[in-house]
Amino acid sequence: MSNTITINNKPVTVTEEQRSMSLLTFLRENQFLHGVKNGCEKGLCGSCTISLDDRAVRSCKMTVEKALGKSVITVEGMEYEDGTIHPLQQAFIDAGAVQCGFCTPGMIMSSYTLLLKNPNPSREEVRKALRGNLCRCTGYQQIVDAVQLAAKYIEEQGLSPLAGCLR
Questions:
Q1: Mean per-residue pLDDT, 14-40
Q2: Structural domains in the chain?
Q3: Residue 134 CA to chain centroid, in angstroms?
Q4: Which of 15, 24, 41, 92 pairs with 35 at a CA distance of 20 to 30 A?
């Protein structure tokens, strides 16, 4: 069995003691990736959502051991090698979908995995993909707008939704 996780395209070796930790705790406390938010630690709010092998996953509900041998992308890993932010991140800014910002990384990661499967989602498909992510500030309309704007940016620029994820 592997003793590494690929995090934002970098292999990270996991110690025996770290295997039983929640992936959320490991990412925040051992990898210093604070974009992964600790909201409820029960898998209900979505603020800890990451991409695990291109699927949206609540990192608070997963142990490090279950992530061994897999690829994790966090909001910090979405930028291009030159430091340019991903079109999805830019769309959240442009659409005013960032309000207090606490839920934003989880919303972005859920949206990212949606765009990998469906590069041009309808508003209803976006809402369905974000169903497990809670926001107390925006009313969700700006977030749905941002995902659709990101799809437009990606299409207009001829990009893959993966393009910015340091791959």
A1: 96
A2: 4-78 (3.10.20.30), 87-156 (1.10.150.120)
A3: 14
A4: 15
